[in-house]
Amino acid sequence: MSAATPLPQERRLVTAIPGPKSQELQARKLGAVAAGVGTTLPVYVSRANGGVLEDVDGNSLIDFGSGIAVTSVGNSAEAVVAKATEQLAAFTHTCFMVTPYEGYVEVAEQLNELTPGDHEKRTALFNSGAEAVENAVKIARVYTKRTAVVVFDHGYHGRTNLTMGLTAKNMPYKQGFGPFAPEIYRVPVAYPYRWLTGSENCAAEAAAQAIDMINKQIGAENVAAIIIEPIQGEGGFIEPARGFLPAIVEYAKANGIVFVADEIQTGFCRTGQWFACDDEGIVPDLITTAKGIAGGLPLAAVTGRAEIMDATHGGGLGGTYGGNPVACAGALGAIETMKSQDLNGKAQRIGEIMLTRLRALQEKFAGSDTVNIGEVRGRGAMIAVELVKPGGKEPAAEITAAIAKACHAEGLVVLTAGTYGNVLRFLPPLVMPEHLLNEGLDIIEGAFSRV
Ligand SMILES: Cc1ncc(COP(=O)(O)O)c(C=O)c1O
């Protein structure tokens, strides 16, 4: 059966989860794969399409994870498969730095067009999100001739040495892997739910604190870049209080600092807009993208103001595989799908359904003596619930893990997140049929009741 043959969009459980064949493969994995490479749900996938993952035992699972916000256009989306297959048959690699090809240029043109702002832009392509963030730092340093980089509490930017340093959370991302790169400074973010003086004061106070720390502890004239996710992903889908991002952008502009929006998780229709920055009209100097860009093929990019992007000497940016022709073809298929199927509209609809149902669940469990939903938040198809112990805001990490496990057993892939491990996050493919979305939400509700 070809990879593009549509799978029935249904949940189907024919064994326990994980089933016997998955368990066998997991035993082989433990003997063959490095222990540091963990798996959330050891169900081995044989095919995937639209909103479902089919496993080696014949089970069909509802996918609320999209391989961590990657398969936004659905798994094995038709246009991605068609374009990548055609490219595979034509040629697989030349190295763009040696003998170039059109697909790379076309992806760069699309990114220059779609990303926020109508100024002149340039793009460079890479293989992974972390690599894109590293390159954004390189570019900002060359352009400003400064070294310091400012990042935020709860931020996540990757697992390479530089990006581990940029990432806030120690376990599991940083523990034992230091020393980290120098000249990285972390400042507060406007996290409304946990802002001590209340969510109304959060944006102004957090921005003032962050700016004061930069001025006093680093010196604005030493800062090359400020890097922030417009909605923090691994940190627990934290939407900075409205007004915070514009204040930081304004400060960066006034001080000649390159403002970098890390839209690796939020970009490409995930939040119901092409980019999460669009929501408050933020125009970043540089934007990093990856994940949803190519329908599952590894591709990442830095896009930004021409004068900043062009400041680097020839040969200073690149890599053997960056902008691989098959991945570029996949990206062109994915972007075409986002436009032709109005995936922004689909993400918005997913958001409406999920927020309504999860808020009802929040009410239902308001009086529970086991767990409360402290906050339901997110935009589009990037929605989360933060779970707390009754009577306060103490994170309920163990119950969060137990609820995720209960969902897995019922054939629903969900992920956890958050600095305190107490956030259930939902990232369905944007093509998820509504009946599966509702079935997934029923399973979540059932898991809350049981746990
Ligand atoms: C906001 C953000 N930045 C960077 C990364 C790193 O991307 P990658 O895992 O492709 O290196 C991630 C991955 O989760 C991310 O969510």
- Shape estimate: globular
Helix/strand class: alpha/beta
Can you name the CATH architecture of the largest domain?
3-Layer(aba) Sandwich
Fraction in beta strands:
15-25%
Strand order of the largest sheet: 4-10-9-8-7-5-6
Please tell me the overall pLDDT. Answer: 97
CATH topology of the largest domain: Aspartate Aminotransferase, domain 2
- Number of H- or I-type helical stretches: 13
User: Which value, in Å, is the CA radius of gyration?
Assistant: 22 Å
Largest sheet descriptor = 7 strands, mixed
| Integer count of domains | 2
CATH class of the largest domain: Alpha Beta
GO molecular function: (S)-3-amino-2-methylpropionate transaminase activity; 4-aminobutyrate:2-oxoglutarate transaminase activity; identical protein binding; pyridoxal phosphate binding
Pfam family, one: Aminotran_3
EC number: 2.6.1.19, 2.6.1.22
Enzyme class: transferase
Describe the structure.
Belongs to the class-III pyridoxal-phosphate-dependent aminotransferase family. This is (S)-3-amino-2-methylpropionate transaminase. It is an enzyme of class 2 (transferase). Its EC number is 2.6.1.19, 2.6.1.22. The strands form 3 sheets. The protein has a 7-stranded mixed sheet with strand order 4-10-9-8-7-5-6, with helices on both faces. Helix content is 37%, strand content 16%. It is of the alpha/beta class. The longest helix has 22 residues, at 343-364. It is globular.
Q: What's the short story on this structure?
A:
This protein has 13 helices and 15 strands.
Give the topology, please:
Layout: H1 20-32, E1 45-49, E2 52-55, E3 60-63, H2 66-69, H3 78-90, H4 102-114, E4 121-126, H5 129-144, E5 148-152, H6 161-166, E6 184-187, H7 199-218, E7 223-228, H8 244-254, E8 258-262, E9 286-289, E10 300-305, H9 306-309, H10 325-340, H11 343-364, E11 372-379, E12 382-388, H12 397-409, E13 412-413, E14 415-417, E15 423-426, H13 434-450
Parallel strand pairs: 3-13, 5-6, 5-7, 7-8, 8-9
Antiparallel strand pairs: 1-2, 2-3, 4-10, 9-10, 11-12, 12-15, 14-15
Helix pairs in contact: 3-10, 4-10, 7-8, 11-13, 12-13
Bound molecules: pyridoxal-5'-phosphate (PLP).
